[in-house]
Amino acid sequence: MKLLSNPVVCVALGLLLGVGTGIGVFWSEAMKLARVVRAEQTVAHEPVRPEKPWDFWTLEIENLAAELKDQKAALAVREQAVAAREERFSADQRELEKTRKQIEALRVEAVGTLVEFEAEESKNLKTLAKTYSELTPKAAVGILQKLDETTAVKILYLMKSDVVSPILQEMGSSPDPELTKRAAQFTDRLRLVKAAKRTP
């Protein structure tokens, strides 16, 4: 009892009780914290499963999920291939359109050139027709028989009828059967050309 009445002893006992109580409380909280940490570590090491609207997970479902994932990847690859083909098709279409325009431009140019040639040819034929009209029928026959039939008919068509008739008579009266035959061909073709010109 004398010890308890000693202030120093009382203070020492108070300190011991306080420290003991603090250690006990600290230990209790530390154990709780350790249990929480272990629980979190356990959850963290569990395999992560995709969210699902059901509360069970089986191997079949995992296989189905993997299969769907593979199908999705394959579909993406096919979509890329289709997009690439469409791009190539569009490029081919653009190239074809470009080629078509080039061909059309060449055609227009060719038509223009042909018209120029025809105009120049017509001018030359008229000059020849005028020149041959001033020749004697015999001299004109000598030149015409050396020309191709189409050119000769064009020249005769551009000449006046009163000039053409003596030339054809000269050819028809020739002892050369080829020249006589050609005179008949010239006559037939001239008739056809004149008939075509009169047709509206």
TrEMBL record:
It comes from Rariglobus hedericola. Keywords: Coiled coil. This is Magnesium transporter MgtE intracellular domain-containing protein. It comes from the Bacteria. Residues 61-109 form a coiled coil.
